[in-house]
Amino acid sequence: MSEKTQFDSVWDALEDDPVRQENLKLRSALMITISETIKERGLKQQDAAELLHISQPRVSALLKGKIDEFRLDTLVDLAHRLGLHVSINIAA
Asked: What does the buried/exposed string (b/e) look like for 5-36 if buried means 16 or more CB atoms within 10 Å of the residue's CB?
């Protein structure tokens, strides 16, 4: 019987590069929070687009979790436009 490998994150399983793994984890966390905030506020995609200063198709991509379409700095900007505070903890 083969031994199964366990990962701390889906990104650890999908990506070999540890730098890319961390970037994907951060982007994923931001995308989830932004999407949840849009849904909690009951914003329609067009209203969210206007608030976030992006197009409605970009909001759609965000809500669908298309992570490769968003850079980390872009997601920080979107979170800020929603009034969210983003901070990063750095550990050795």
From this structure: eeeeeebbeebeeeeebebbbbbbebbebbbe
Q: Full-prediction pTM beyond 0.70?
A: yes
The dotted CATH code for 19-81 is 1.10.260.40
Are 28 and 84 within 8 A, CB to CB? no
29 alpha carbon, distance to own chain's centre: 5
- Kindly report, residue by residue over 1-29, the tens digit of the pLDDT: 567 766 566 555 566 777 888 899 999 99
Torsion of CA 13, 23, 59, 34, to 10 degrees: 100
In this model, does residue 35 exceed pLDDT 60?
yes
**Mean pLDDT throughout 40-53?**
98
Nearest-angstrom CA–CA distance, 1 and 4: 9
Residue ranges of the domains in the chain?
Answer: 19-81
